[in-house]
Amino acid sequence: MEKIELKHTPGPWAVEVTKYAILINCTVDGIDHCVVTDRFCYPGFAQHGDSVKLANAHLIAAAPLLLSALMKAVEQEDKNAHQFFLQLPPYTPGEYVFPDWYYDAKDAIAKATNTTQP
Question: What is the three-state SS of 17-56?
Fold first, then answer.
């Protein structure tokens, strides 16, 4: 997997629930970063309760760690494929079959990093 420049705030992110909002907070190098969703529902918008908003907040907070784990898994699988071809006798055809999750993981990485995966 080629090197991808990560532009997001790395975290760690934490979820905090207040009376009026659900906050997803992170402090990096003394700078506070925050994503906020309010706890109220407005006419014309999806009527999600706190449980859905809180679940979304925890998913967002975990995103940098999930991205890192996916990138490591794809990198390891790329190494496995490379090693497979190195072990073949010269001029022997071979096909490495990537696991089912591999292409979904590459798509998720591309979406999270706003890049195109080969």
Answer: ECCCEEEEEEEECCEEEEEEEECCCCCCCCCCCHHHHHHH
How far apart are the C-alpha atoms of 40 and 108, rounded to whole Å? 30
Q: Would you call 14 helix, strand, or coil by DSSP?
A: strand
Q: Measured between alpha carbons, how far is 18 from 13 in angstroms, rounded to an integer?
A: 16
On the question of a cis peptide bond just before residue 12, with omega within 30 degrees of 0, the verdict is yes
Beta-bridge mates of residue 101:
none
DSSP at 15: E
What digits encode the pLDDT tens for the residues 20-35? 888 888 888 887 778 7
In 10 A of CB 106, how many CB atoms?
19
For the whole prediction, is pTM greater than 0.85?
A: no
